[in-house]
Structure formats: C-alpha cells, structure tokens
Amino acid sequence: MYNSSAADEAANTSSGSRVFIYEVVGLRQNEETDKTDYPIRQSGSVFIRVPYKRMNQEMQRVTRMGGKIVSIQLMNADNQANGKATSTTTDNQANGKATVTTDSAANDEAKLETKSESKLTEKGKPMTQAKPKKETHTDVPVNIYRPNAPYIGKCISNDELVGEGGIGTVRHLTFDISGGDLRYLEGQSIGIIPPGTDKNGKPEKLRLYSIASTRHGDRVDDKTVSLCVRQLEYKHPETGETIYGVCSTHLCHLEPGADVKITGPVGKEMLLPSDPNAKVIMFATGTGIAPFRAYLWRMFKENEKAANPDYQFNGFAWLIFGIPTTPNILYKEELEQIQQQYPDNFRLTCAISREQKNPEGGRMYIQDRVAEHAEELWKMIQEENTHTYICGLKGMEGGIDEALSAAAAKDGVNWIDYQKEIKKIGRWHVETY
User: Fold this and answer.
1) Strand pairing of 125-128 and 242-244?
2) Where does residue 306 rank: exposed (0-12), middle (13-18), buried (19+ CB within 10 A)?
3) Domain ranges (residues) in the chain
4) What is the pLDDT of residues 296-314, one digit of tens each?
5) Which of 167, 175, 261, 154 minimizes the C-alpha distance to 218?
6) Which residue, of 20, 115, 199, 339, has the greatest Cβ tally within 10 A?
7) Mean pLDDT throughout 137-144?
8) Which residues contact 71 (CB under 8 A, 6 or more apart)?
9) Which of 52, 311, 342, 433 does the annotation list as catalytic?
10) Which pTM was predicted?
C-alpha cells in the first residue's frame, strides 16, 4: 500500500527524474505521524513513493518515526502492481532489490559526530564485474605484546587537536617505543591498559585505539606510535551525573614522561592495499580519522615518501569527514596542506553538522555528503582498484548504505549484495565502535 502524490507524478516523467519505492516496517503512531499524509499502520509493510531529490529527507523522516527501511527499489511509471514495484527485464535477469537496514539512532548527533561476481543489466545484456583476487598481507605483526606482559612505553607528547570554540577535547598522543619490539602497520590498533582497578576490584581491562601514525612513527624513525583520543564524557541516564571514560580520561591527562602500558598490535581489516595506484575512499566521524591520518601521511608526506622507495602513491584518496564544528576538524591544517600540494590525488570533503545545512534544511551529517556525491562515489566503488574504508562510531554505516543503495539502484544493482561481494574480495573495510 502506498500513496500517490502530485510530487511523485511530477518527478516520474520522461525528463529523467526517478521515483523510488521505500518498503518500510515498524512505523508507529504518534504526534509526528499524525501530522503526515502518508499511510501508517502498526505492523506489516508500508510502501512509500519517494522522488529522488527527497530520498535523504524521507530516510530521516522514517527514522524519526521509529521505522526501518527494508528495501529501496527504482520504480518506472509502468511497473507498479499491488503496491509493489515489479521489474521488467530480458534474458530472465531480474533487477536486484536493494535491501537496506537502518538504525533508528543513525541520525543521533552523539553517535554520528563522533558473489564474487556482480550481475548488472544494460539494455537487457548481462555485464560482469571482474573478480580481482583478495590481497593477502604477509608479515603482519600481531600481538607482539599481550595483556599479561604489556610493553611499557613513555608519553613523549600530548597535544590538543580541537580548536578554540570547538566541542570536547581530543588529544594527539605520541609514545616512545624504542625500548622494545613493537612493530605495526597503518590501519592496525594497539591496546592501552589504564592504571587502577574497576568497580569489582579487578585490574582495568585494555581498551583498543586505532593507530594514527605510519609504521615509521611521526618522527619517521621507527621509534614512536601515536593515537588520536577523545575524552569520553556523558550524562548518567538516571542520576544526571557526568561520567568520564576511564581510559580516555587517563590518556587525555597523561603527562610527557609518564609510563603507559601498551599491547598489540592487532587487526588486519583496515590495512592499506599495496598498490600505489589504488583509489582509496575514506568515511570518518570524529576520532575515526585516526587510521586515515596514517594512510594520508604514508601517501603524501615527503619524509615518508623518502622512507618508502617501494611505495610511491600515485592514486587518488578521498576523505569525507563528519564533525560538529569547524574547530573540530582534526588535523585541519595538515589535511588542507596535502590537498593544496596534491589537488589531483587528494580530496577533502567535510560535513559540519552544527554549521552546515543539508538540502532539506537540517543538519549536515556524513550521510548527507555521501548522498550528495553518491553517483560519483558509486562509480568509483565499481572500479577494481578502489578500496573503501569506514571508521567511527556505530550508526554511521546505515546512512552511507542508504545513499549508495539509491545510486546503485539506478543501475539495477542491489547495493547490499554488491557490498558483500567487494567485502569478500577485500575492497570494503569497516571499523566502528
């Protein structure tokens, strides 16, 4: 069941504009839904026509009303039946149905700021995506130091990254690791064990942090490792008391010269491809920029390039970065310098939620930027040498999937299935927390 509107009819014309069908479940009756003209019911599916230019706005509206979008499908003027969009194809090749799961908290500022072969159809003729081999990373260091025998490093520096007028505190910390055998690669994480005991009187457990430096360290001497740490701070839901994260608070207030217990490194999911001509798409919110700083320094910093004669990056890197205010653009000056020096190889796009507006007049989140550039991103993602990385708080993946689903659906491709394929061959990488 879905409701026609004049806007739908205007959009679904021969001019090339498209209309999509959202299949939605879980919409609830409340004061907000009572103000709408859309058919709402307590259970089952609701089918809503959405013009392309209103897709992102409608995704946000559904989320606010507690609903979940279970599929998005392109609709032509003559292919609707019984409230569902049916596809007309040739050679018995069915168009993919883009299935998307959303998180009702995906637009929550607190969360966001912080098969081998794909079949497409073009004029009825099947096209196949080549099946590149999954890259195998050899000699990846893992768990050199374990929790029962951590490496004791020393804090060299602890610098504020948030500019004046920004929100919260984020620190760039550098540790001396010259006295041990701690080795790591870009995209890996290390564990930090804070001092003291937990509420049960047991030693505090380690917390993992993405490494923000290249394998050679910020000094390019193989003797340091760096982290990007935001002090966790939130209100207790019952008492209203301000709660601070144990390990993040410990790190953010660490004095130079202080000892720090380090474990690891761990992780193979976020490693960079060895191909210096690769295209690298990076979606980050807040301190999720940490591994991407390591990538970009390896790709573009002159002293890094000199230290890596066998890796001279000549590809293309695109960072889409979600933050609340301009002073919260972490490593801003250095990112802008790279963009200025390498305009053909690096692109920086920011979504500044409390300063910029999306096309519907709401706050500009990372999923709005992805929707804005969805067709260009989708085209890049299909290239065999493109790797896509997502890093930040859980909740950001849903909006990215929704935006890319719409772009893929225009080509008759089921985005979720396609995403599984490129993840299987090692071209889609996610690290959220």
Assistant:
1) unpaired
2) exposed
3) 6-88, 151-266, 279-432
4) 999 999 999 999 999 999 9
5) 175
6) 20
7) 86
8) 21, 22, 23, 97, 98, 99, 100
9) 433
10) 0.70
Contacts of 353 (CB under 8 A, 6+ apart): 109, 112, 113, 322, 323, 324, 363, 364, 365
Nearest to 47 by CA among 29, 78, 70, 30: 70
Find residue 429's DSSP bridge partners. Answer: 389
| Among 391, 397, 402, 405, the one annotated catalytic | 391
Closest CA to 116 of 349, 426, 425, 431: 425
Beta strands, E only, 211-311: 224-230, 233-235, 242-244, 259-266, 279-285
Active-site residue flag, 365: no
**In the 8-state DSSP scheme, what is residue 197?**
B
Q: Domain 279-432, what fold?
A: Rossmann fold (3.40.50)
How many Å apart are CA 54 and CA 48, to the nearest integer?
A: 12
Residue 418 is among the residues annotated as catalytic for this protein:
no
Same fold, 6-88 and 279-432: no
Q: What CA–CA distance (Å, rounded) separates 95 from 377?
A: 21
- Of 113, 186, 402, 431, which one is the catalytic site residue? 431
Using one digit for the tens of pLDDT, what is the confidence trace for 358-413? 999 999 999 999 999 999 999 999 999 999 999 998 888 899 999 999 999 999 99
Hey, what CATH topology would domain 6-88 get?
Dna Ligase; domain 1 (3.30.1490)
Whole-angstrom distance, CA of residue 347 vs CA of residue 340: 9
405 is catalytic: no
Clarify whether 247 is annotated catalytic.
no
Class of domain 151-266: mainly beta
Catalytic pick among 118, 189, 210, 226 = 210
Alpha carbon separation from 51 to 9, 60, 61, 236, 381 (Å, rounded): 9, 14, 14, 41, 24
Q: Quickly list DSSP for 44-79.
A: SEEEEEEEGGGHHHHHHHHHHTT-EEEEEEEE-TT-
Distances (CA, A) of 180 to 158, 217, 279, 292, 398: 21, 14, 35, 26, 41
Q: Which two tokens stand for residue 171?
A: 């620190």
Contact 365, 319 (CB under 8 A): no
- The DSSP output letter for 36 is -
Query: Strands 125-128, 119-122: parallel, antiparallel or unpaired by DSSP?
Result: antiparallel
Known catalytic residue: 228? no
Q: Which of 151, 209, 295, 418 is catalytic?
A: 209
Pair of tokens at residue 311: 């890796």
Taking the C-alpha atoms of residue 95 and residue 81, their distance in angstroms, rounded to an integer, is 16
Q: Which amino acid is at 293?
A: R
